[in-house]
Design goal:
Layout: E1 9-13, E2 20-24, H1 35-45, E3 47-51, H2 57-67, E4 68-69, E5 91-92, E6 100-103, E7 115-122, E8 130-134, H3 135-141, H4 144-152, E9 155-161, H5 163-170, H6 175-184, E10 188-191, E11 197-203, E12 206-208, E13 215-217, H7 221-227, E14 233-234, H8 242-255, E15 257-259, E16 266-270, E17 274-278, E18 287-295
Parallel strand pairs: 2-3
Antiparallel strand pairs: 1-2, 3-16, 4-18, 5-18, 6-17, 7-16, 7-18, 8-15, 8-17, 9-11, 9-14, 10-11, 12-13
The structure holds fe (ii) ion.
């Protein structure tokens, strides 16, 4: 039982190994459900969808506050996000409507968030599903030669930001502040004469799981390649070929789980194991909020 004896909550699987839906069948409050049980389910299954609870943005903030800390304000993040709450820790996801390939959130900095929360303020009329996949299963599906390749070579994300771009992105006019933020995020920075900056970030495409027992394919390669094929290469500057990308995109599509949003849904994702993305959408209804943070429990 996830809550007190007066209320009932149903737990349904997304697949055998990952994802559980926690469905309110009576009038349970999401703030009263048993946190220990939630934590255990989260650690076992990687992502939890809370559905059927009476929620608004304040409930979302309170519930996520009760399980996480170290909320990030997305400084240096890859896309534009609209800020929802005063301290800048609740943000929108809808900068644009295109498909987003599966990715680990902010896997282009040294210490990405370990938990990603989503709140569905309003679902799209159609399409726009959030996509999810298990990075452990992704690794398992790789061919042996691909596993070998990704163990030998790391990913390199080079980039250049013009002056107005870094001013915008890092919310400062001070180059030293930008350099400090970038370096604290594990990016090497070079400042050019015209005050543009060149930076690079190098990381493995595969990571050890939280318990160190499994390998996890989690990174931002698929999305980076989709947005700009030149935005990522291997760390020896060799190309990540179309053939490599076909194998990876085929696996991604095969093991993708879709979340069809309902108003008020809350989604909690383990960003050390689970990749997420979204299908394209075409209407102006979709309003999904996100929080990036760390667990407030032993993890
Ligand atoms: Fe994301």
């Amino acid at each position: 039982m996830l809550t007190n004896t007066n209320t009932k909550i149903e737990i349904q699987p997304f697949s055998e190994n990952v994802g559980r839906k926690i469905i309110n069948t009576e009038n349970a409050s999401i703030l009263e459900i048993n946190k220990e049980e939630v934590i255990n389910l989260f650690k076992s299954y990687g992502f939890l969808l809370f559905r059927g609870f009476e929620t608004d943005v304040n409930t979302f903030a309170e519930f996520s506050n009760s399980l996480s800390n170290g909320f990030m304000d997305y400084t240096g993040g890859a896309i534009n996000r609209r800020i929802i709450n005063e301290d800048g820790t609740i943000l929108t996801v809808n900068d644009f409507k295109d498909e987003m390939k599966l990715h680990g959130e902010m896997y282009y900095i040294k210490k990405p968030p370990q938990i990603v929360w989503f709140f569905c303020a309003n679902p799209p009329l159609k399409d726009g599903e959030t996509t999810i996949c298990d990075g452990e299963q992704f690794f398992h599906e790789l061919s042996n030669s691909m596993k070998d390749l990704l163990r030998r070579k790391k990913l390199k994300f080079p980039g250049r930001l013009k002056k107005e771009d870094w001013q915008n992105k890092y919310k400062t006019n001070d180059l030293n502040v930008v350099k400090e933020i970038c370096e604290s995020q594990g990016r090497e920075v070079q400042i050019n004469e015209d005050e543009s900056i060149d930076f690079k970030f190098i990381c493995s495409a595969i990571h050890k799981s939280r318990t160190e027992q499994k390998d996890v394919f989690i990174n931002s390669l698929l999305q980076a390649k989709k947005v700009n094929p030149k935005s990522v290469c291997f760390d020896d500057d060799s190309e990540i070929t179309d053939e490599i990308m076909s194998e990876l995109n085929e696996i991604a599509e095969k093991i993708t789980i879709e979340i069809n949003w309902q108003k008020g849904d809350i989604l909690m994702i383990d960003n050390t194991r689970i990749m997420h993305g979204r299908r394209a959408f075409y209407d102006d209804q979709r309003d999904i909020y996100v929080r990036l943070c760390f667990p407030a429990f032993p993890f």
